Amino acid sequence: MPKLIQKLWKFALKNYFVSIFLACVAFVIFVASYKLFFSKPTYVFVKVKMGQGLWWASTQKPSLWFVKSIKKGATEKDLLGQPIATIQTVRYYPSTVSYNQYDVYLDIKLKVTGNKKTGVYSFNRSTIGVGAPIDLEFPSSQFSGTITEMSTRPLNDRYVEKTVYLVKYFGYPWEYDGIQVGDKFYDGQENAVEIIDKSAVSHNSIANPSTYFTSETYPQSRDDIYLTTKLKGQVIDGKFVFGEEQIVDIGKTLYLSTDRYSFNNDYQVYRIE
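Above: the chain's sequence. Below: its structure in token form.
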């Protein structure tokens, strides 16, 4: 054995370039083996808004066919078949700026590298944090998005139900007839909107607001439409937030949609319980 060691040592001295290369390979194998078999993986939990990836960029939003391809429980895996990203929840709401498109929010568990002391983490060799873009590749869908929330613990977003009263002034009778009590909207996790009650105050002849109180009247009757709705949202800093981003305040208009009706931005909040 000592002779063999001496021969290897002499070979290493004569061929030091080869020796350095083999040492580097051995070091890489050691580090990779340690991370794979001995080191404990680090996970973070993020909320991602699907989009181009840069929060300040306004890009086209996904259509319904793409939203339906995103599945809860879908997993992205690395080259060794280990999960690195898992979709835990999917919520989607009709876009407030684009017809037939949706704002999509996903809670995702990510396997990351980083330092818990500094709080800086990387996913797929890119640093992540609130406001950072992220690219994800699942078996049924591939997309980019913006991280809107991040935590080292599972996200515990608490959704509460509130009764929100809405009014639209000078609506057409067909609008009132089209709204159905009991109509709902399912956001991918639960019923986020439900119409509880409706009523109307009719005007057979009213001044046209665009004429500033002249004698011109509408050619047909109009209704003030009053709605009672149940909305699911979050309370953030004392504000009730619907659809992840719409702050519900008295006096503000609210964009809503149900299975049978699109309310657009015509309905104003006049009471919240």
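The longest helix spans residues 16-37.
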